[in-house]
C-alpha cells in the first residue's frame, strides 16, 4: 500500500509499521536482519543501562553505521572514518549529545564533530537513545515527508523532526501510537515496498531490471 503523509488513519500507519521487519528481510542484504535487531533492540538497552551518563563506543558507532548503510545507500568511506575514531572521543561527543536532549539542534552539533558523522548519522545515534524525540533521517522517509531526500543539512533535519513529531501527535489523538521513530519506519517500509513491486509483479516471468 502507498502511504500519503497527510493520511490520518492510524490503522493505515500501523499496517505500514507492522510490515517493517518483513521489508528488512526482503532486501536480502548480508547481516541486515541482525544489524537491525542490534540497532532497535540491543543498542537502546546498552545506552539506557549507562544512565544517567549514557554514551556510545566506537564499536557501537561502527555497528550503527553498518546498519544505516545496509538499510540505505552503501558508502564504505563513512564506515572507515567512524571505525578509526578514538573511543574516548566518541564517548565524549555522544555523552554531550545525549545530555543536550531534548535540544536536537545542539545534540546533532555535538555529534557531527566526529569524522564521518553528518546529521543523518547523528540522527540515527539520537534515535537509538530517544526514539520518542529524534527520528532517524532516512532518505525514504525524507522523500515522503518533505519531498526531498538530497539535503542532509541540520536545518532540513530539524524540519523533518517537526513534521514527524507533529504527525505522531496527530495519530496519538486518534489512537495508540508510540512516536516519530515509528512514523519513519512506517514511511520507510512503504517506500521499500513500492520500489520492489515491479520486481514482485514480474516474478512469474523474467525478473524486471531496475
What does this structure look like?
This protein is mainly α. The chain has one domain. α10 crosses α11. The protein is globular and about 45 Å long. It starts with 9 loop residues before the first helix and ends in a 9-residue tail after the last helix. The C terminus is likely disordered.
Q: Which stretches are poorly predicted, pLDDT < 50 over at least 5 residues?
A: 199-210
Mean pLDDT: 91
Spell out the helices and strands N to C.
Answer: HHHHHHHHHHH
**Helices and strands: which structural class?**
mainly alpha
End-to-end Cα distance, whole Å, is: 20 Å
Q: So how many helices?
A: 11
The major sheet is characterized as:
none
**Strand-residue fraction?**
under 5%
Helix share bin? 55-70%
Oligomer: single chain
Q: Using the alpha-carbon principal axes, give the shape.
A: globular
> In angstroms, what is the radius of gyration?
17 Å
Number of domains: 1
DSSP summary, beta strand count:
0
Organism: Eutrema salsugineum (Saltwater cress)
Region (Disordered): 188-210
Protein name: HhH-GPD domain-containing protein
